[in-house]
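Technical annex, item 7. During the second reporting period the consortium partners agreed on a shared format for inverse folding records so that results from different sites could be compared directly. Each record opens with the tokenized structure and is followed by the designed sequence. A conforming record, contributed by the partner at site C, is shown below for reference.
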């Protein structure tokens, strides 16, 4: 019974005493739900939409990497801009509604001339993603002022659990609808409707952001502080600068192959659209189940501990795709990937909040996002070139699988250097990791143990 009550309690938000902050975070929760509806529609269907217009591997690589480059460039300007804005809320709302505008343009891009349509899709999608990235650093500073530091892991894990449910439901539902009404090759009209609905949902999420409570700034962000180059040059002595480079390398080495998993599923394995939607969204189910687990582990054992554990798993994730093509196994692998990436993302986000003072939070968040963006763009273009020249190695049926192996090798190299040489340290004083306690927190383990214990007691009484 204790485990059941604890499991049910994990679906309730951590207690926040400040009534204004509590009310504001509920509006933030509503904004997040609506935003995840948008993401579920956009993330599931953008790659198939581009494939319906063009099979260019270069455009596929640009679809994944160009938004990160543009976002990285704009992020560098965000700290200076944020020093002059009077309202973080107004800035974030402007970026949210600009995303809705560019989603409308994405919806119309399929009606350009055939040679121009895929190019415009990539351009509009890149600007849409960049607009979201611009508001991300300011939003991070805003949320950090509203959520007490001692419950951040549990709070963001709680809200992201519901967000994952929403995203995976919308993503899978959109896939089934597209296959049901459009067949294996849906017409562009179906994508038009999906992107227009996503734009409408994003408009409503902007209204929810506008209704949120915005605490007054307790500090004045410096318009001129350390530059981006100065930030990177501090890597030999700065723990956070090294952490930023490590995170960027993990994302970059992933981006070499990342855009081509979906292409591999659709063009090489010829997976039906509805099955494809289920596989793609399996990682969100992994996120749903494991976010509370990682939130507890990061609160108890530290964010760097969670980062390095999940990074090892992320490095190994491409390897199963070298040997298995079954839809069932692909779903399982994507599920595991989601479980790992949600822990990595949660821990790196909370590490940023812990490592940086409030005055420099926007700047450091922007520099961290910019570094990751530059890394993803460079490695993404490299992956686009390698996808055209790498042959399938023995026992493999596709050159994409060779690319997956290269990506895994580079991920292990990044993890081996930064973790193996202990180049990054934990910020908080945390207790040593206890494998038994961590295992007991795995989803379903404690409930299963309690059930077995109670069954044993009943049998002994018979």
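Designed sequence (site C submission):
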């Amino acid at each position: 019974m204790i485990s059941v009550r604890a499991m049910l309690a994990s679906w309730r938000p951590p207690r926040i005493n400040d009534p204004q902050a509590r009310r504001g975070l509920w509006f933030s929760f509503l904004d997040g739900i609506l935003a995840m509806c948008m993401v579920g529609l956009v993330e599931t269907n953008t790659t198939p939409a581009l494939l319906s217009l063009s099979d260019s591997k270069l455009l596929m690589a640009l679809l994944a990497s160009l938004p990160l480059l543009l976002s990285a460039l704009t992020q560098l300007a965000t700290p200076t801009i944020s020093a002059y804005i009077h309202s973080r809320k107004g800035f974030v709302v402007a970026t949210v509604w600009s995303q809705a505008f560019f989603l409308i343009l994405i919806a119309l891009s399929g009606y350009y001339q055939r040679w121009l349509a895929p190019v415009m899709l990539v351009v509009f999608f890149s600007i849409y993603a960049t607009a979201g990235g611009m508001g991300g650093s300011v939003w991070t500073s805003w949320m950090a002022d509203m959520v007490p530091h001692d419950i951040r892991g549990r709070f963001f894990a709680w809200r992201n659990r519901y967000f994952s449910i929403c995203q995976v439901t919308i993503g899978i539902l959109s896939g089934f609808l597209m296959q049901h009404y459009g067949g294996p090759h849906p017409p562009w009209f179906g994508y038009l409707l999906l992107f227009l609905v996503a734009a409408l949902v994003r408009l409503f999420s902007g209204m929810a952001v506008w209704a949120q409570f915005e605490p007054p700034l307790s500090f004045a962000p410096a318009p001129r502080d350390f530059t981006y180059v100065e930030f990177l040059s501090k890597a030999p002595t700065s723990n956070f600068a090294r952490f930023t480079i490590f995170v960027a390398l993990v994302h970059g080495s992933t981006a070499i192959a990342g855009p081509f998993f979906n292409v591999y599923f659709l063009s090489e394995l010829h997976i039906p659209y509805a099955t494809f939607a289920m596989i793609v969204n399996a990682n969100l189910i992994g996120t749903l189940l494991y976010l509370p687990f990682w939130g507890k582990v990061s609160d108890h054992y530290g964010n760097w501990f969670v980062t390095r554990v999940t990074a090892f798993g992320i490095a190994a994730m491409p390897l199963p795709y070298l040997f298995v093509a079954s839809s069932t196994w692909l779903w399982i692998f994507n599920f595991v990937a989601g479980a790992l990436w949600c822990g990595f993302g949660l821990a790196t986000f909370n590490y940023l909040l812990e490592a940086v003072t409030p005055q420099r939070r926007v700047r450091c968040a922007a520099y961290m996002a910019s570094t990751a963006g530059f890394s993803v763009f460079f490695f993404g273009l490299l992956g686009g070139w390698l996808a055209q020249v790498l042959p399938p190695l023995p026992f493999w049926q596709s050159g994409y699988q060779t690319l997956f192996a290269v990506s895994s090798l580079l991920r292990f190299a990044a993890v081996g250097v930064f973790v193996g040489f202990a180049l990054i340290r934990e910020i908080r004083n945390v207790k040593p990791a206890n494998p038994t306690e961590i295992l007991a927190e795995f989803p379903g383990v404690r409930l299963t143990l309690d059930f077995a214990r109670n069954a044993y007691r009943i049998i002994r009484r018979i």
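The radius of gyration is 22 Å. The longest helix spans residues 19-53. All partners now use this format for quarterly exchanges.
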